[in-house]
Amino acid sequence: MEVHHHAHTPGKKWTHYIWEFLMLFLAVFCGFLAENQREHMVEHQREKQYMKSMLDDLKRDTAEINAVVSSIDHYFDPVLKKSTVLLYLDHFSDSIIKEMYDTVPKSSRFFTITFQNNTVTQLKNSGNLRLIRNKEVTDSLAKYWNECEYLINTQLASYETTRIRMKELVFSLFNLNYFENNSLINPLRKNISLKLMSDDRVQFIKLGNYLSNSHTQLTGSIFQRLKNINQKATDLITLIQRKYHLE
Question: Which pTM does this prediction carry?
Answer without folding.
Answer: 0.80
